[in-house]
Amino acid sequence: MTSSGGRPDGLDPRQSRAVDSGLPGAEQEPGGRFIPRRSPDSRAPASFAQGRLWYIDQWQPNSPLYNMHAVYRLGGPLDVALLDRCLTEIARRHEVLRTRFVAPDGAPVQVVEPPGSVASSLLDLSSNSLEENEGRLQGLLTSLVRQSFRLDRLPLWRSAVIRLAPDEHVWVLTIHHVICDGWSMQILNREVSTLYEAFGRGEASPLPDLPIQYADYSIWQRQMLGGPLLQEQLKFWMSRLSGAPPLLELPLDHPRPSELTSSGFHLRSAAPSGLAAALTTFCKARRVTPFITLLTAFAVLLRRITGQEDLVIGTPVANRSYLELEPLIGFFVNTLALRIDVSGNPTFGEMLNRVRSLALDAYDHQDLPFERLVEELHPERALTYTPVFQVLFQADETARTRLTLPGLTVKPLAVDSGTARIDLTLAIQRDADGLHTSSVFNSDLFERSTIEEQVSAFHTLLETALDEPDTSIAALPLLSPSQQQRVLIEWNRTGAAYPSCHCLHHLFEEQAARWPDSPAVWSRGRTLTYDELNRRANALAFELMERGVRPEVPVAILMDRGPAAIVALLGVMKAGGAYLPLDTSTPADRLRLILQDAGVSLALTCASASQLLEGTPVESILVDLERPLPDHGLTVNPITSVTPDNLAYIIYTSGSTGVPRGVLVAHRGVVNMVAFDHRTFDLGPSSRVIDVVSLSFDAATRHIFLALGGGGCLYMPDAETILSPPALLELMREQAITHAPFIVSVIMALPWDELPALRVVNVGGEACPAELVARWGAGRRLFNVYGPTETSIFATLAECAADGHPPPIGRPIANSTAYVLDENQQPLPVGTVGELCLGGIGVARGYLNRPELTAERFLPDPFSSLPGARLYRTGDLARFRPDGNIGFVGRRGFQVKIRGFRVELGEIEGALSAHPAVRQAVVVTFGDASREHSLAAYVVLHEHASAATDQLIDYLAGLLPPYMVPASLAILPALPLTSSGKIDRGALPAPARRETPGTYHEPRTEMERSVAAVWRRVLNLDRVGTQENFFDLGGHSLLAMQVVAQLEGQYGVRLSPRDLLLGTLAQVAASLERQSHGTGQFGAPDAPRAGAPERPHGIRGLLRRLRVRDGDPR
Amino acid sequence: MSVETQESLIYKVVLNHEEQYSIWPADRQNPPGWRDAGKSGTRAECLEYIKQVWTDMRPLSVRRRMEDQA
Fold first, then answer.
1. Which of A506, A657, A722, A1107 could serve as a FRET partner for A736 with CA atoms 20 to 30 Å apart?
2. Which residue numbers in chain A have pLDDT < 70?
3. How many residue pairs bridge chain A and chain B with CB atoms within 8 Å of each other?
C-alpha cells in the first residue's frame, strides 16, 4: 500500500492554492483553516470517492476488491493490550474510523458512531511448531486480508494479531478503502508508533487534536463542486480527454473475458542496482522529478508494446492540498487521467518535456473528483474494461513512515490479496536499497511471465534512456543483453547441413536413379514410375531448351492437377527455367495480367486448358501422357548452367490491394526446406503422400517433394474426390496414405476416421484450432506449419499436443530465423505481440517487377551473422511464448475495428468452432465503407448435428463481449474455397442482419408505464420503450439510485440495482410487479422473461462503469 | 505506428553485396553488409528512388555468373 506522489514540479501545492479565489471555502476559517467544521446537526453525505465505492458495494457486496491492508512481523514481547489502547485512541481521534454508511434516499450518507474500545482478535498458534506455522502463515494472511466488510455496519476495519511464538507475532490491519487511502496508512503507522511509546511509558497521548474531521471535508467538497473553479476544471478535463482511445490495447495472453474480472496477481521486482543513483543524477541535471522521468519511461514502454500513440494513463494524487487535511485518515486520494501523446519519434529528452508539461497542467486541475469526470464523459459503454484508462502509474518519491515499536523489531510482510482493480498497475518505490517495481495485473488477462518480461523491459529502457537521453524513443532497447541473446540467438540456432549444391530437380533425379521402378505419382487410372516420370520430364526439358528456356526464364504451367503437371514442373526446372504455375480456373483477365507481368512467352498446357491462351502472344506446348514414352536414352538428365541461386519458380499471390504479385523463389531455400522435411517427417520409399492443393499454391511444391525427394509416392486425387470429404477420406483409407499435408479448412471438413496407416499430419495455411489437434493428433504425429510464399513455403513448425489450446506455430526450421519485432525492427519482450519477421536461407528474392514493394517488405536483417542478409516482414502478428515457441496471433488485415474495438476475427471463429455442433466457422465484416462495419458469421455443422442460428448467437453472447457477437449468422452446407484450398471469403453469400433491439415498443402495462415515466423524468427523454436498458439510454450510477429511490417511494418495493442495470424496462417492470405481489426477486440475466431479448451482460461486467481508479494499486 | 508518423520519419536507401535494395531509418547505423545508396528522405521518396534504380532484381552474383556464361 502506498500513497500517491506529490506535485511533479516540487512546488508546495498550498502555494498555488492560497491564491485561488474562486473557492467557496476560500475565506479562511479560524486557525488558518479553509475547510470549516460542520454544525453538530448537519448530515454528511459520502464524499464523491466514497460514493463510488458504496455504489460498487451495492452491485457486488462482500468483495475484497477494495480492502487495504498492512501486515507486520513483530519480533520481541508484544503488549497486545497496549496495542489495543493505541487503536482505541486512534479511533477516538478519527471519526472516520467509526463511520458507517446508510442511504435512506438512495444516496449514501455518513453515520458517525460514538467512540468505543477496540480489541484486536488474537490467534494464538504458539503451541504449533514454527515450521507448521510458517507453512500456513501466507494462506492465513491472505484469508484475513480478503475478509469482507459491510458498509452499513461497524467496524470497517479490523486488527488481528497472530501469535506464532511468545515473542513472535504478526499484526494484520485490514481497512476498507472507503475510509482510508495510502497516505492514511502512513498516518496510522505514525500514530501507532507514537502512542505505543507514550502509553508504554505511562504518558498521555502527545498527538495534537485534529483540526477537522473527514465528514467536514466531504460537506465542504460538495459545496466547492458547485463553484466556478470546479466548472473550469471540468472543462479542462473534458477537452483533454475528448476523442481519447477508450481502451489501451495491451498484448493480452488470454482473450478479455466478456465481463470485467478482478482476479489479480502482485509481482514485485527489484530494479537493477545503480538505476536509483542514475535516476537521481539524471533528474538533478535535467531539473525534473523522478516521477516525470519514470512516467515518461512507462509511457514509452506502453507505446512500444501496444503500438498506440495516444495513451491514457491514470495516476493518483494525494489530494490533500490543505494543511488541515494532512493529519486526517480517510479516502482523499484522487486519480488523474493523463493523456499522453507519444506520436512521432522524439528523443527521450523531448518526450520528457512533453510529459512534464502535460503533467503540470493536470496537477493544476487536480481537484475535480475523477468520479465526476466519468459521469460527465459518459464513456462508451463497455462491459469488459475500466472506463477512461486501464493502466495506472504511481511513483513514490518520499520515504514512507515506518512503524516503530519500542522493544520490537518490525518487518513489513507482503501479502497478495489476489485482486486487481484494473488491467495493470505499475508502482515504483524507492528506499535505501534502490528502486522497487511493484506491478499488479489482472490474472485473467495476463500470464505472470509476460508481465515479468515487461517490467524487465521497463528497467532496460529506463537504463538506456537515463544514460543516453538523446536516443529516439523508437530506438530504446526493451531487452537486456541476455534477453536479446535468448530471443535473437539461442532461439534461432538452426544451422544444419543441406545439399547446398543441389537444385530442386536434382533431389528428384537422385531418387529416380535409385528407385526407377517405384511408383512416383499416382492418380486414378494413371500411375507414373520414377523412371517414366524422369524420362518424360527430360524429353520435355530438351524441347524447352530448344525453344530457348534457360536459367531465369519463366515458363507458365496452365494445367489440371495430375501426373502430367508434375512432368511439366520437373521439365521446366530440368531445362534450367523457372515454372510459373497457374490454376486453370484463373479468370481470363487475371491470367492475361500475370502472363504479361511475368513476361511469359511459353506455356505448358493440357488439352482442356490450351484455349485459355487464345488471344495472348504466349506459345504453348501440350504436355500429354498419351504420347509414347521416350526411349531409354532419355534417362540421361539434361545438364544446364542453372545454380541453386537461380529461380525455381514464380508464384503469384494476392496483395493487400488485390493486385497479384509474383514472388521470386530460388532453388536454395526450397532445397533446404525439402531436406528439413525429410529429416523431420520420417519419409522414405514407402511413404505415400497425398496432395490436394492447386499447383498454383506453393504448398503443392512442398507436397511433391515430400514424396519425390525421398523415393515415396505422390497421390493426386481428382477434383471430384477432393471436393467430397467422404470420398477423400475413403481414398486415404484405401491407398493407405502415410503423410497428409492439409490446409486447416480441408482437414476440418473431413469426417473423422481411424486411418491407421496415416502417421504424419501437417496442417497449415490458416490458424490451427485446438479441436483439430484433438481430433487428428491421437495415435500419430501432427505438426502445425507456418510460412509465407516469400520465405520458400514454410518457415516455422510445431509438433502439436492435444492440450485444449490452439497450438503454436513453433520454431524456425533449419537455417531459418524468426523474430517478433516492433515497427522499427526492434525485438520485443517475450509475450508481447509484434510483427513476425523471418530470415535465413528461405528468404525469397522479392517480387517480380516490384522493386519498391520488395524493398519495403524485405529489410536488412540486423540480427544475422551473415553480412547483407535480408529479413522478410510477414505482416502477421505473433508473440514468443516463454519456451521459445511462437504463438500466432492474427493476420494484420484480419483485425477489424468494430465500434472502436479492435476485433480479431479468428477469435470469434475459434469461439464458434468450439461449439459441439460446429465443424467450421468463418467470420467476415460487411457494410459499406461510409458506415460502421458489422460482423457476419458463417458456420458449417457437423454431419447429423443441428443448431439454430439463434442458439449459436446466444452461445457466443455468453462467451464474448457484445461488440464481438456477429450481427448476422448463417448456416451453410459447405464453405466456398479458393483454388488454393483456403476459405474464399469473397464468395460467401451476402449476410442478412439479425433483428436488433432498437425498435420502439410501447409500454403496455400500468407498471411499465410508471417505470417509463420515472426513466423519462430522470433521463430527460421524450419516450422510452419496453425493450430498452437504462444504461444504454445514458443512465449512470447516480441516476440509477434516483430511479431506485423514486420507485421505492411509489411502490414500497426496493429494486435491486442489478435489475436496473441488466434488464430492459419490461424486465424491470415485471420484477417490481412480482415483488409488489411478494413473489420475490427477478433473476436476470440467467432467467430472461419471455419476449425480452436476452442481454449478454453479467453483473461484474457492469462494475466497470462504476469502478474508477483511486490511488492505490492494492 | 500511425501512417502520419511513418510518413514523417526519415529513411535512407541501402544496398547489400548482392545489390539488393532496401530502406533503413536514417538515424540508425546500417546493419553489417549494407551500405548507403546515397539517398535519404521519406519512406515514399526512398521507395520511389529504388523503383528507378533497381532495374535488375537478380542478385549481383547471379547476374555475373550468367554474364560469364553468355
1. A506
2. 1-33, 258, 379-383, 397-399, 655-659, 892-903, 927-933, 960-963, 978-982, 992-999, 1031-1032, 1034-1038, 1041, 1056-1063, 1077-1114
3. 100
Contacts of A941 (CB under 8 A, 6+ apart): A917, A918, A919, A947, A971
Q: How many of the other CB atoms lie within 10 Å of CB of A347?
A: 18
pLDDT, residue A522, reads 97
- All three cell numbers of A266: 502482485
Contacts with B57 from chain A: Cβ below 8 Å: 664, 845-846, 848-849, 851, 854
Cβ atoms of A856 and B54 within 8 Å: the answer is: no
Query: Residue A902: phi, psi to the nearest 5?
Result: -80, 120
Q: At what angle do helices A214-225 and A228-241 cross, to 10 degrees?
A: 70
CA distance linking residue A213 with residue A392, whole number of Å: 29
Interface-testing mutation among B3, B58, B63, with chain A (most A C-beta atoms within 10 A): B58
A1006–chain B nearest CA distance, Å: 55
What are the sequence ranges of the domains in chain B?
A: 3-69
- The verdict on a CB contact (< 8 Å) between A552 and B66 is yes
Calpha distance A742→A201 (Å, rounded): 83
The whole-number pLDDT of residue A449 equals: 94
In 3D, which of A1002, A1064, A998 has the Cα closest to residue A1035? A1064
Cα Rg of chain B, angstroms: 14
Please provide residue A553's backbone torsions phi and psi, each rounded to the nearest 5 degrees: -90, 125
Helix (H, G, I), strand (E, B) or coil at A676: helix
The pTM of the full predicted model, rounded to 2 decimals, is 0.79
Residue A60's pLDDT is 75
Among B21, B28, B62, select the one facing A475 at the smallest CB separation. B28
Subunit contact A851:B57, Cβ cutoff 8 A: yes
Rounded to a whole number of angstroms, the distance from the CA of A992 to the nearest CA of chain B is 34
Query: Do B18 and A868 make contact, defined as CB atoms within 8 angstroms?
Result: yes
Cα–Cα distance between A1006 and B60 in angstroms, integer?
A: 86
Nearest to A1100 by CA among A961, A992, A966: A961
Q: Are B18 and A344 in contact (CB < 8 Å)? A: no
Residue holding cell 516492433?
A: A822
Measured between CA atoms, how close is A641 to chain B, in angstroms?
8
Q: Cβ-count burial of A1020 within 10 angstroms (0-12 exposed, 13-18 middle, 19+ buried)? A: exposed
Name the CATH superfamily for B3-69. Structural Genomics, Unknown Function 30-nov-00 1gh9 Mol_id (3.90.820.10)
Query: How many helices and strands (H and E) does chain B possess?
Result: 3, 3
Q: Do A867 and B62 touch (CB under 8 A)?
A: no
Q: Which of B66, B57, B18 is nearest to A642 (CA)?
A: B66
Q: Beta partners for A739? A: A689, A760
Rounded alpha-carbon distances, angstroms, from residue B25 to A818, A829, A859, B14: 21, 21, 11, 10
Residue A819 φ then ψ, to 5°: -130, 150
Cβ A643–B62 below 8 Å, yes or no?
yes
Collapse the DSSP code of A722 into the 3-class scheme (helix H, G, I; strand E, B; otherwise coil) and give the result.
Answer: helix
Count of other CB atoms within 10 angstroms of residue A190: 16
Antiparallel, parallel or unpaired: β A602-605 and A619-622: parallel
ipTM associated with this complex: 0.97
- Chain B environment of A869 (Cβ under 8 Å): 16, 33
Provide the grid cell at A814.
533449419
| Cα A590 from Cα A596, distance rounded (Å) | 10
Strand, coil or helix: A419: strand
What is the SS3 assignment for A730-791?
HHHHHCCCCEEEEEHHHHHHCCCCCCCCCCEEEEECCCCCHHHHHHHCCCCEEEEEECCHHH
Number of neighbouring beta carbons within 10 Å of residue A405: 21
